[in-house]
Structure prediction request, 82 residues.
Amino acid sequence: MLYQEQDPEAGRRRYVTDALDRFQFTQVAEEHCMHKNRALQLHADRFCRDVAEGCEAWLKSTKNDASKSAVLKRELNMTMPL
Prediction:
């Protein structure tokens, strides 16, 4: 069919929604990284801490790579809290 009355953006939005539906954030520490009702439950505090630690480790690893450091200095604008 040439025309199916479909919005290409709607398909992309549905894909993102479907992906996000597979994750649930919880405040119960015992429910970190467990599957329940076809979704991965993640403890919100621990997830954020894991992401922050991963970012810090990645930034530290780029210090020895001149090309990555140059791109970061040019593209990334970070401010550190006082």
Summary: Helices lie at 8-21, 44-62, 66-75.
